[in-house]
Design goal:
- By secondary structure, the protein is mostly helical.
- It has 8 helices and no strands.
């Protein structure tokens, strides 16, 4: 049962949300070290599982930008452990392996993400479950298979 299917049942109070917004500002202005600090603070203060998943996602992206791949992999693993039905953790992990030149491992992770997406499409739940429209997924897969 995916965390992302439960977002509508979640509490609206996010104690770490201000730090996430601050981290996003730093991230988008390429101040990655400052973004890390803001996201780490957000994670310490946040208790809502879906919000924590999102912070791990942002930490993973930031560590990847800084080429701190061991830390990025830890964050991708946190994403996968907390929501194995969501493809983004596998995509993040695949990207890290790709940047490290570990192409076989990257393909394995991308295949896991693709399987999750294919199953969601068969269930007719791709957009609701994963936040991706069928049109976006088809565009991505055409590009990938291209």
């Amino acid at each position: 049962f995916s965390l992302h299917k439960r977002t509508n049942m979640a509490h609206t109070k996010h104690t770490g949300s201000g730090f996430v917004l601050r981290g996003n500002g730093f991230y988008h202005s390429h101040q990655y070290e400052n973004a890390l600090e803001a996201y780490k603070t957000a994670l310490e203060r946040e208790s809502l599982p879906v919000a924590r998943w999102n912070i791990h996602n942002r930490l993973c992206a930031t560590y990847t930008r800084l080429k701190q791949f061991d830390e990025a992999l830890k964050e991708a693993e946190e994403m996968i452990v907390s929501d194995p039905e969501h493809p983004k953790g596998y995509v993040r992990k695949g990207g890290i392996y790709y940047f490290q030149g570990k192409y076989d491992l990257a393909l394995e992770e991308y295949a896991k993400a693709s399987k999750i997406m294919d199953e969601a499409i068969q269930e007719g739940k791709a957009q609701a479950k994963l936040g991706v429209s069928l049109h976006e997924y088809i565009s991505l897969t055409k590009t990938k298979r291209g």
